[in-house]
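Dear colleagues,

As part of the handover before I leave the project, I'm documenting each prediction I ran so the next person doesn't have to rerun anything. This entry is a single chain, and its sequence is reproduced below.
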Amino acid sequence: MSTTHRARAYAKVNLALAVGPPVTGHGPKAGWHRIASWMHAIDLSDDIEAEQIAGDVPPADRFDLRWADDAPLNAGEPLGWPIEKDLVFKAVQALEQAVGRALPTKINLRKRIPGGGGLGGGSANAAAALTLTAKAHALSLTDRELADIAATVGSDVAYFLDAESGADSPPRPAIVEGFGDRITRLERCEAVLLLILPPFGCATGAVYKDYDEHMRRDKRGFDRKGIEEASATGAPEADLCMNDLTHAAIRVEPRLAGIIERAEAVAGADRVRMSGSGSTLFVLVSASEAGTIEQELARVLHGDGATIIRTRLV
């Protein structure tokens, strides 16, 4: 009887995200953007398990992907996109291509991380699917080989492959650079975050396209030295949090500007930041003020249809 392998796939926030201009020319990475990002896992996770099965099971029956019953959004519902579009499916395909043979695997996923908001849920799931499928089939792959396969699935996937953390532990924070392939692990920080989830997403392609056209960057800049010092003390500061894609996301989805304005009226000027290419926003708060600000944000942003989630860095 085959063994079921389980893992917890944690969401992340981009506490800081600097984005370079698109690569020019006609090479394989033409149009891509080099980044520098301070990524940190948060206490919001999906559950995923994988088990080796017989090869005659149809592909459509190998994946049971749905929202968890306790998900903050879409609880208990099927995913709103085809399985073939999910990064879990693509991760298994990439692994099969890398090893040159079929790897029939039953994968169950229960999602809590909202999709398409810049929290890395798809990438976290893909990383877990790679490691669990490799375990289910007793593949002898090095960390480097797994990272190379992960890079073919998505640029954020390698960040979530942190062998030192273990299957049920969040990946260590890191400064992620280049095309997601240069990862410098940092110490974990402690902080409470309030996530603001608008009822709409920001299409990543559209955000980057607008960024390329206007190249309007965050005035704060990426402070690597400050980030390393904050990580050493375990106390992140709002002044270190920035995102070069914020202005582009607002142009793609103008409703985001109003939500940021109303959120800052509650949390304080210049305290609201965006994760990834949006639309998720976050506020670093102290434990003593978290409850009050959370309630007031929920009241003020109710008309916008936004959901507020209290979480923490892990």
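The chain has two domains: 4-185, 192-312. The chain has a mean pLDDT of 96.

All the best with the project,
I.
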